[in-house]
Amino acid sequence: MRIVIIGNGVAGIEAALAVRAMDRQSSITIVSEESDYFFSRTALMYVLSGQLQRRELEPLPRDLYTRLALSRSRARVVGIDLAEKSVRVADGIAPIPYDRLLIACGSRPRRPPWSGATLGGIGHFVTLADLDWLEGEVGSRGAAKRPRRVEYPWVIGGGLIGIEVVETLLALGYRPRFALRDEWFWPISIDAREAGWIEARLRSHGVELRAGASVEGFEGEGRVSRIRVSGRTEPCDLAVVAIGVEPNTAWLEGSGIALEDGAIAVDEGLMTSAPDVFAAGDCAGIVGPGGRRRPQQLWYTARDQGRVAGARLLGEPARYVPGLPY
Q1: Is the pLDDT of residue 318 over 70?
Q2: Residue 321: alpha-carbon gap to chain centroid
Q3: Whole-angstrom Cα distance, residue 126 to residue 287?
Q4: From residue 155, how far is each of 51, 235, 243, 249 by CA, in Å?
Q5: Does residue 323 register a pLDDT over 90?
Q6: Cα 309 from Cα 12, distance rounded (Å)
Q7: How many C-beta atoms lie closer than 10 Å to residue 4's C-beta?
Q8: At what angle do helices 10-22 and 299-313 cross, to 10 degrees?
Q9: Mean predicted confidence (pLDDT) in 101-107
């Protein structure tokens, strides 16, 4: 059997490992544009702060792919032909045929809705390309040469990625402004009193926290130099936008695979609306309490979904049952 997995993240690699643990004969092809090897996305900040080398982002030995006969294709997927059962890729590469397919293409940074957001000096911190970009902007700890000095860095968005970028910028000697739309940091998980403790520590380290901030746009000539926030225009020569992620599924529009609010609709066995096609990880819309379908964009939920998907690719009767959030 020909198994194709789109995505080399935690859901995709866990599915491949699950398949290979049960079946040594089927061919497994992993298609990924971002990286040849599985890496820990949650550890990007430690590379930027100089605590890890890039190779140390990879929790699995590189020869694992050879030992387990996992074929890799470094390519950008542009579509799926359900009738022909093949994956279409860019740059003139021949379509990749499949008998069973897993879509584990993850998520992408939510695009900023503000004017001027395409100016230079504005980016995200989710992918390896984002790590390259931010290293080019602020350098990295231990680097022999640092790029030009950033004077007015902003971090926009009060989730985990936002505060990780703030921490990393502090480690590199910067004093960022931290703009939050909410009244305090991470209100989905902590209350105002707990957030107050965190805010006090941030300020003691030199972070200028702006709670309840309303970003209105960016200004500059080719590169950002100013930000409009809460009715004021202030200097800004770097902006890391961390306002969340969304399923990376735009390439599936018109494919015949059902999407719901951008996520791939799946059943309890992670099967999509198309036969022999499954989805797992950040791109999969899971039915939760109350019947609402939404992606579960966490590392350990992607891991668990990948394991279920691996069993389902082999026809095993497995179900993904969402547990309690941590």
Answers
A1: yes
A2: 22
A3: 25
A4: 21, 13, 10, 26
A5: no
A6: 9
A7: 26
A8: 40
A9: 97
